[in-house]
Amino acid sequence: MTLDEETITGLEREFAVFVRQDRAALGRLGREVHPDLKVAAYRLLAHLAERGPRRPTELACHVGVTAPTISRQLQHLEELGLIERVGAPDDGRAYLVQLTEAGRRRVEEVGVARRRRLDRLLGSWADAEIRAFAELLAKFNGSAATPPPRRCGGDG
């Protein structure tokens, strides 16, 4: 299927607006977790909340940064008291990163605020429209998912 250029241009424009608005909202909500928290750091916290303790290398792969960059981000989050290091059960030389209780509580608070925001944004939509939007967005995200540009894995 080939779409006309006007449709593609309109879709691209709306996508850019969506990404900008979501990034700005995420930045505001992330600052509710901690005033010094950056958007990228909030994504790490949300990933840890969803997936549980992870090796730093896996987190670096998830957000697409290098080992030194993830190390600095994790150090900052640790200094804020939002994450902690624990030994990896399968390798005494490695460690995992997990949320502290304060980190978990803050991420949940932001999650509640995000859901309230979505509820406000979609408040005038019919239930069927919301379900269709969610299904189409999931379909799009599934087709947009590609393997990472570099091989991820290893010790952290």
From TrEMBL:
Protein name (Swiss-Prot/TrEMBL): DNA-binding MarR family transcriptional regulator
Keywords: DNA-binding, Transcription, Transcription regulation
Highest taxon in the source lineage: Bacteria
GO molecular function: DNA binding; DNA-binding transcription factor activity
PANTHER family, per the entry: MARR-FAMILY TRANSCRIPTIONAL REGULATOR, TRANSCRIPTIONAL REGULATOR, MARR FAMILY
Species of the source: Amycolatopsis jiangsuensis
SUPFAM superfamilies the UniProt entry points to: Winged helix' DNA-binding domain (SSF46785)
HTH marR-type domain sequence ranges: 12-142
PROSITE patterns found in the cross-reference section: HTH_MARR_1, HTH_MARR_2
GO biological process: response to stress
Pfam families for the chain: MarR_2 (PF12802)
